[in-house]
From TrEMBL:
GO cellular component annotations of the record: cytoplasm
GO MF term set: metal ion binding; metalloaminopeptidase activity
UniProt entry tagged with the keyword Hydrolase: yes
Protein name: Peptidase M24
EC number: 3.4.11.9
Gene3D superfamilies the UniProt entry points to: Creatinase/methionine aminopeptidase superfamily, Creatinase/prolidase N-terminal domain
Family: Belongs to the peptidase M24B family.
Enzymatic class: hydrolase
Creatinase N-terminal domain residues: 21-152
Domain Peptidase M24 C-terminal stretches: 550-607
Length: 608
């Protein structure tokens, strides 16, 4: 009945094959005169999701998480992961060959300094590291008396005989009816920022920036409609887009040819060389531009200047068309979610469903809309102890049966051409415990505090983050992830630059879309998270002395009333929940079948 087309549940590769790969890798780096090498999890643009041909870290180590890196010397090998993936890494990696280390504290460079010897040469691929990252590696090597060496070709690729070919996903035009702003208007705004930054040219090293600027979308990586590409935008004259022409339909080719010169990716360095002559100042995005680009500009006599790509901020502030599209996408998504939640409520108490069943059902309900292009990330479907793993991904081996008395945490999203969604609901299967209801209500109150917040325009996310945690803190509890991330418009579900977290130091502006997702996780028992997407809008206050903002909730899905301890709530919090549920009922009811309508009426009743 249900199936997943956009995600799999396969087990990561492991065993003796990985041990042999590590041995072959060491032989390769020794042949190159190196004592060690670093293998990051990423591609030349620091993308979150990468093409199969770029999964070097997973191929070498077996670790499939979205953040990590490996350092290999002739003597030792270490895998660095953040706290989300410590448990996963221990399950996937041969710990007799690899030590598992923290990714941030202490930084991996400290390990490197401690494990290199005087006079040794440590290699890195300058296409897979930013210049700032390369500088940190060089400093660590220097402290050990060693030298950092940029290689011309990656040694992993030399031994990865079955490495997939680079992707050739078709490029589509993202029409003005979806984008809401012409390419010419975008060029004008970008060049105004270039003037402010004193740039002669700007390299678009982030495919998200290329997609937004040229109003195109692609299919080169999973879950994000990216056309892997670069662009070079001069202060004056025609831009150049660097993209494999085999991806271009006649329509896409004609669209791009009307805007820019089209060249293959291999022509990028030559174009940089020509542009850099005469000490031209060329902007490179400090977050995504590979060190190889900076090296090329310098070698040609130009001046690379590290900047925050101005497109990042422009792209984050959605225009009226994009806002209308995301509202439509969330209504459509809300109908699919209602069908799913009604189905779970009917089927799960029987104890026959599994985590994978839930993933497949939810994706199927979204596909039934006829508008689903992809899921926006692999669905997190965790019940019982698995729910306490923040970034859990179910596999056929880990798949757990959903039992009465459990909580089911399901975090999912969709890619529609008019908008990107991301929503988490925690569902009681049977009767929840008093502790579960207490923790859920504390999370919910923090969620409501963020949703109802009123703040000056330009407030930083760090200033809002504590609102989500206050009721957990009162009980000596907390959660170890950020409260919210930016979301794109049929682009990345995790979009910068703004976020709500302890590290959120970018001003929040009207038109940005952010998640609101506090949680609580009891290791070995259950997990709770409540997530809606929020649009920053003007807060109209009589007598206000400065521009004030607030949030408009975009997500439309019932919150499980069975998990709410109403006695904890203030009158205002109860009113917010009842008003939210009334809105969900009004907007979603016309879009669902009769059986789901019956469930929806009960699920959105006012709190008793």
């Amino acid at each position: 009945m249900f199936e997943a087309q956009f995600q799999t549940f396969d087990e990561p590769e492991g065993g003796t094959a990985l041990a042999a790969r590590l041995a072959a890798f060491r032989e390769e780096i020794v042949q190159r005169g190196l004592a060690g090498f670093i293998v990051p999890r990423g591609d030349s643009q620091q993308n979150e999701y990468v093409a199969p041909s770029e999964e070097r870290l997973a191929w070498l180590t077996g670790f499939t998480g979205s953040a990590g890196l490996a350092m290999v010397t002739v003597r030792e090998a270490a895998l660095f992961v953040d706290g989300r993936y410590t448990l996963q890494a221990g399950q996937q990696v041969d710990t007799t060959a690899w030590s598992i280390q923290p990714l941030t504290d202490p930084p991996p460079e400290q390990w490197l300094t401690q494990h290199l010897k005087d006079g040794e040469r440590f290699g890195f691929d300058p296409w897979l590291h930013t210049t700032a990252g390369a500088e940190r590696l060089a400093s660590a090597c220097e402290k050990a008396g060693a030298k950092l060496v940029a290689v011309e070709s990656n040694p992993v690729d030399a031994i990865w005989s079955e490495r997939p070919a680079p992707p050739l996903g078709p490029v589509k035009v993202h029409t003005l009816t979806l984008a809401g702003e012409s390419e010419a208007d975008k060029f004008e705004r970008i060049r105004a920022e270039m003037d402010r930054l004193g740039l002669d040219a700007l390299v678009l090293s982030d495919s998200h920036a290329v997609a937004w600027t040229f109003n195109i979308r692609g299919a080169d990586v999973a879950h994000t409609p990216l056309p892997l590409s670069y662009a070079l935008l001069p202060k004056n004259g025609q831009p150049t887009i660097f993209i494999d022409s085999r991806k271009l339909s006649n329509e896409a080719r004609a669209h791009l040819a009307s805007l820019a010169e089209i060249s293959g990716p291999e022509a990028l360095l030559a174009a940089l060389n020509a542009t850099a002559k005469g000490d031209a100042v060329i902007g490179l995005d400090s977050a995504t531009a590979a060190d190889a680009l900076s090296r090329a500009i310098t070698a040609a006599g130009g001046s690379p200047r590290r900047v925050t790509d101005p497109i990042t901020q422009l792209k984050a502030i959605k225009n009226d068309t994009e806002i209308a599209g995301t509202r439509a996408a969330h209504r459509r998504d809300g109908a699919a979610l209602a069908r799913f939640l009604a189905w779970i409520d009917h089927e799960a108490p029987g104890g026959t469903l599994t985590e994978i069943d839930a993933v497949e059902a939810l994706e199927t309900f979204r596909r039934d809309t006829g508008a689903l292009k992809d899921v926006s990330f692999p669905t997190i479907s965790g019940t019982g102890a698995n729910g306490a793993i923040v970034h859990y991904r179910v596999t056929r081996k880990s798949n757990r049966r959903i039992q009465p008395g459990d909580l089911l945490l399901i975090d999912s999203g969709a890619q529609y051409e008019d908008g990107t969604t991301d929503v988490t609901r925690t569902i009681a299967i049977g009767t929840p415990s008093a502790e579960m209801r207490d923790r859920f209500t504390r999370v919910l109150r923090g969620h409501i505090a963020v949703a109802r917040a009123i703040f000056p325009d330009g407030t930083h996310g760090v200033q809002i983050d504590a609102l989500a945690r206050q009721f957990l803190w009162q009980a000596g509890l907390d959660f170890e992830h950020g409260t919210g991330h930016g979301v794109g418009s049929y682009l990345s579900v995790h979009e910068g630059p703004a976020r709500i977290s302890k590290l959120g130091h970018v001003p929040l502006r009207r038109g940005m879309i952010l998640s609101n997702e506090p949680g609580y996780y009891k290791t070995g028992a259950y997990g709770i998270r409540i997530e809606n997407l929020e649009l920053i809008v003007e807060a109209k206050i009589d007598g206000a002395e400065k521009p004030m903002d607030t949030f408009e909730t975009l997500t439309l899905a019932p919150i499980d009333r069975r998990l709410i301890d109403v006695a904890q709530l203030s009158d205002d919090e109860r009113a917010w929940i009842d008003a939210y549920h009334a809105r969900v009922r009004t907007e979603i009811r016309p879009l669902v079948d009769e059986a789901t309508k019956v469930w929806l009426e009960a699920a959105t009743e006012p709190l008793a």
